[in-house]
Amino acid sequence: QLPTGLYKKVLVILHDSILPYMNEPTLMIDFLTVAYGIGGAISLLALNGLFILIHQHNLEYPDFYKKLYSLLDPSIYHVKYRARFFHLLDLFLSSSHLPAYLVAAFIKRLSRLALTAPPEALLMVIPFICNLFRRHPACKVLVHRPHGPEDMSEDPYIMEEEEPSESRALETCLWEIKCLQNHYHPDVAKAAAVVNQSLAEIEDDISGLLELSAYELFDKEVKKKAADVPLEFEQIKGLFGKKNDIFAEHFTLD
């Protein structure tokens, strides 16, 4: 049993400062799988090490995607390690061999959680979801279902279901993204409106959006040059704006 602070310090440097220098990196399998099962930020940080073991040392983790799916909660858009998590999530969902129901479950869950996400996270996750549609065309049924649920209570998707295959994500539609098209931030509304059109085949580069902060968004808005707003289109004629105004003969606006 390690203190939470020590767990985090070890996991932050494990993938680049420890594993590459070990003769047998597979000795860390138990440590990383236990850390991955703890939950919260520790599980997010364990992903880096697990990715190396899965990708380079043939580690088989049967419930890996089920656990990854369970990590998607409202905090992922607010945590300190958000950029690292979404970078790895992008890698794990990049394979074209993943079943459509699995990818659809991730898309739907990310969309549902996006309803309470801050603008800087939304500007990252919407292109992220669009990239998943490009990789997995079978999931486009989520945005091409005109007779979807008219009320949130009729949505067949089961948010509380821990097993992606049982979440019924392929039976639903992305009404959440439709809601975001009315977001108060114009950039978010514009990004969400992309799903109304056919998506280009080339994926969006989200690397520059992973580290986007609220300060950068605010700074961008402050530096915008405001256009001159016309306050009056017709010049006033007479004191009360009427032609042949008798008052204009005796009073002026100077």
Describe this structure in words.
Residues 43-192 form the CCAAT-binding factor domain. The chain crosses the membrane at residues 31-54, 85-107. Keywords: Membrane, Transmembrane, Transmembrane helix. This is NOC4L protein. One of its GO terms (biological process) is ribosome biogenesis. It is elongated, with a radius of gyration of 26 Å. It has one domain. It is 44% helix and 0% strand. The chain has helices at 4-18, 29-36, 40-56, 64-70, 82-92, 100-113, 119-135, 175-180, 186-192, 214-222. It contains ten helices and no strands. The mean pLDDT is 83. The protein has 254 residues and is mainly alpha-helical.
Helical residues, percent: 40-55%
How confident overall, as mean pLDDT?
Answer: 83
Distance between the termini: 83 Å
State the total count of DSSP E strands: 0
Radius of gyration computed on alpha carbons: 26 Å
Following the backbone from N to C, one meets helices and strands in this order, namely: HHHHHHHHHH
**Largest sheet descriptor:** none
User: Overall 3D geometry?
Assistant: elongated
Low-confidence stretches: none
Whole-number total of structural domains: 1
| Class per helix and strand makeup | mainly alpha
Indicate the topology:
Elements: H1 4-18, H2 29-36, H3 40-56, H4 64-70, H5 82-92, H6 100-113, H7 119-135, H8 175-180, H9 186-192, H10 214-222
Helix pairs in contact: 1-3, 2-3, 3-5, 6-7, 7-9
Family: Belongs to the CBF/MAK21 family.
Domain CCAAT-binding factor: 43-192
Keywords: Membrane, Transmembrane, Transmembrane helix
